[in-house]
Amino acid sequence: MEMRLEVLLLLLAAGAVTLVPRILPLLVFSKLQIPDWGLKWLNYIPIAILAALLAQVLFMHETMQWDYLIAAIPTFLVAIYTRSLLGTVLTGVIVIILLRFFF
Fold first, then answer.
1. Contact 73, 45 (CB under 8 A)
2. Number of domains in the chain
3. Within a domain: 80
4. For 19, phi and psi rounded to 5 degrees?
5. What is the DSSP letter of 71?
6. Of residues 103 and 15, which shows the higher confidence score?
């Protein structure tokens, strides 16, 4: 298989673009002492991102599907009460399967 220089440069550039945003914050924050309030604030970032993605799927009018909204309710309740990722995912999948099979 022939490897062209353009393809090699493209792969190296893509690797650099992927690597720099991951390494640069690590290098910067490893030398800084983040205060406790900053660490507490950083703990909320993943759940905020997931909530924004979930809200976009559930409530956008062009893509809104009622089966997703209905399945989100028991899935959310299982997530709150069990705090189990496996239980939450299985609940969501099973409810979607049942809704699509019966409706």
1. no
2. 1
3. no
4. -75, -40
5. H
6. 15
pLDDT at 62 over 80: no
Q: Tell me the DSSP string of 2-39.
A: ---HHHHHHHHHHHHHHHHHHHHHHHHHHSS---HHHH
Phi, psi of 32 (to 5 degrees): -105, 150
Residue in the block written with tokens 């924004």? 52
32, pLDDT greater than 90: no
- Tell me the residue type at 71: A
- The per-residue pLDDT for range 84-95, each reduced to its tens digit, is 999 999 999 999
What's the pLDDT score for residue 63?
64
CA dist., res. 65 & res. 78, Å (int): 21
Where in the sequence is the domain holding 2, given as residue range(s)? 1-32
Contact (CB, 8 A) for 99 and 70: yes
